[in-house]
Specification:
This protein is 41% helix and 20% strand. By secondary structure, it is an alpha+beta fold. Strands 1, 2, 3, 4, 5, 6, 7, 8 and 9 form a 9-stranded antiparallel beta sheet that branches.
């Protein structure tokens, strides 16, 4: 186990790591106790129990995440006969409420089944290796890894398909078609409420914001990499009214499409490829 005391400047980075630990076997019971910060406890093998504030116990079977959130009493332990293998990370910071809003941290769901603990456990291992007393980058390196850990935990949740939610993948594929959110819901045989729930669970935002993010990203690519008129860019990303597209782009991006092109334009002969280069193949 290692514990740290990051300074005020480190807290302004958004998240800071307060401690990390890797332990296994017949570990002692934890709590009942209340903390003033977050702890992610990743159980990779074994079983045990978690007790809610009202005393009700939930069986814990690996792979599982235990979310310990500020101000909430918690009490848990591995089975004394079998024990378990756990890695934990203590963290806090001003970005935590935003991660909670996006669904990466779930205060109301302290026991979260995982499909695979390998990804989160690898991040915890990197934090532990960075936790050398003589590491001058310790606070920044471990704080950055906490952001990575939250992404890895979100990706490993057992209630999401291993390769991502199929509804989200379909929405991303069709995002630039001139369809309303209601049209997308109908294409998937879902009510608007069902689509909102599915997108909120998988992406942490509304269907409208999810589609808008993809459309604006594509619009930026076309503005930067082509000489298409703004009206043509608008049509390519699903907007028949170029004036509306320009207003929307300006409001969300902070500058008009023509100004974005003036700053970011990088038109090259033959256009751009969507393939991410592999260093060994495309040095």
């Amino acid at each position: 186990m290692r514990f740290f005391t990051p300074g005020p400047a480190h807290h302004r980075l958004g998240l800071v790591c307060l401690g990390v630990g890797l332990q296994h076997g017949a570990l002692p019971t934890v709590g009942p106790r209340v903390l003033d910060h977050h702890v992610a406890v990743v159980i990779s093998t074994g079983a045990g129990w978690y007790a809610a504030p009202d005393g009700r116990r939930t069986a814990v079977t690996a792979p599982t995440l235990l979310w310990l959130t500020p101000g909430v009493p918690h009490h848990y332990a591995p089975d004394p006969g079998t024990g378990w293998d756990e890695g934990f990370v203590d963290f806090t910071g001003p970005a935590a409420p935003t991660y909670t809003e996006l669904g990466y941290i779930e205060p109301g769901r302290p026991v979260v089944p995982l499909s695979d603990a390998a990804g989160p456990r690898a991040v915890i291992g990197r934090i532990a290796r960075a936790a050398r007393r003589d590491n001058p980058l310790l606070e920044v390196e471990t704080g950055a890894a906490v952001h990575e850990l939250l992404v890895a935990l979100r990706r490993a949740r057992a209630d999401l398909a291993p390769d991502g939610d199929q509804v989200l993948k379909a929405l991303a594929r069709d995002a630039c078609l001139p369809l309303t959110v209601a049209d997308h819901a109908a294409r998937h045989g879902m009510t608007l409420a069902e689509l909102r729930t599915a997108v909120r669970r998988g992406a942490g935002c509304s269907p409208k914001d999810y589609l808008l993010g993809i459309r604006l990203g594509r619009a930026k690519e076309l503005l930067a990499a082509t000489e298409l008129p703004v009206a043509a860019v608008a049509r390519r990303v699903g907007y028949d009214d170029p004036a509306y597209f320009s207003r929307l782009f300006t409001r969300r991006v902070g500058m008009a499409p023509v100004r974005f092109r003036a700053q970011q334009g990088r038109t090259v002969p033959g256009g751009w490829s969507n393939q991410v280069p592999t260093p060994t193949i495309h040095p």
